[in-house]
User: Fold this.
Amino acid sequence: MKKPVSLTQEYIKGLWEINPIFKQILGMCPTLAVTVSAINGLAMGLATTFVLVFSSVIISSIRKIVPSQVRIATYILIISTFVTIVDLVMKAKFPELSKALGPFIPLIVVNCIILGRAEAFASRNNVLRSFLDALGNGSGFLIALLVLGSIREMLGTRTIFGVQVLPNQFTPWMVMILPAGAFITLGLLLGFANAFTKWQEQKNKKSVLVR
Amino acid sequence: MDLVIIFIGAALINNFVLSYFLGICPFIGVSSKITSAVSMGIAVIFVMTITAVVSWSVNNLILIPFGLDYLTIPSFILIIASLVQFVEMVIKKVSTAIYRALGIFLPLITTNCAILGLALFASMREYSLIQSVVFALGAGSGFMLALIIMAGIREELELANVPEPFKGVPITLIVAGLLALSFMGFAGII
Assistant:
């Protein structure tokens, strides 16, 4: 029996320790596609978190009555229900954002983070823990999207959330708002995240030795 | 002529992997060897084409006439999941050789967003049946092309001296970025 994890830890771990983007490398497609600007990243992050939290709670609450042979199909149906809700609400309330994100809102269905958390966590933990885990992973995803979107928007158009942050003398790097910029920025970020993790591990080792 | 433009557009100019970012997971996961890249590519072209036909039929013959558009997402995903299962069973019966070559890649395709993306794009752009099929062939070939180029580069990359933290996924993404830049050159074709 594993020792029980505290409830706060259940939430916190999603932010960095098992961050969907930087650590699990899941859900790459929306990450790369929508982060042309910070606001798009924020919208996508919120939409995904919404779907993740609600489907995790439902899946966790019915985990004992779903036969394991049909569980994946059941999960996909539950997830696609919530995605449809998000899609319709976005179309009605934020038509511009919905147009900018295009098919990537419906594509949340196949985002591996959601099915991944459903299978790895919600299907074997209680509702409260699944809720916190989903919220943590969603927040981690949101943070990653915001960082990526802000960097690309800043270097590509001199602004963040439409507010100018770099002086006019700075020549915008066109490549940043093109698909190529997405790949390169995320590649560099992942590399730095790996380097940071290594550095942290080494520091921990040293402090253990000192003690 | 219209069909040629759709094909080239989907295969080169708006390449699914490099400009729409669809199917990144298999692009990173299965692109370490050329042979597996070819198998995966063929499997994707195959499933995409069938999906295009079935999803077009369901969308235009059932969902739209009965005003059930809001069921598009669940029905497309169900179509793809059951289709992949079905194709797997048929291939297993028909030829063990093909099954052995494609076997492990077929289940992976269900969660490949390129397939669902294709169905959604085709319904959004209101393609006719023939246009959808050509679109699927183009998108599938583009996917396979990107996968094979990437696999070729990665086989060479094994020998390169990459900084430790950048090994694996990070350097693959950066290479993909450069590949996307070079694919932009195709924009002038049409």
Chain A has one domain: 7-210. Chain A touches chain B at residues 25-26, 28-30, 32-33, 73, 76-77, 80-81, 83-84, 87-88, 103, 106-107, 109-112, 115, 175, 178-184, 186-188, 190-192, 194-195, 198 (CB under 8 Å).
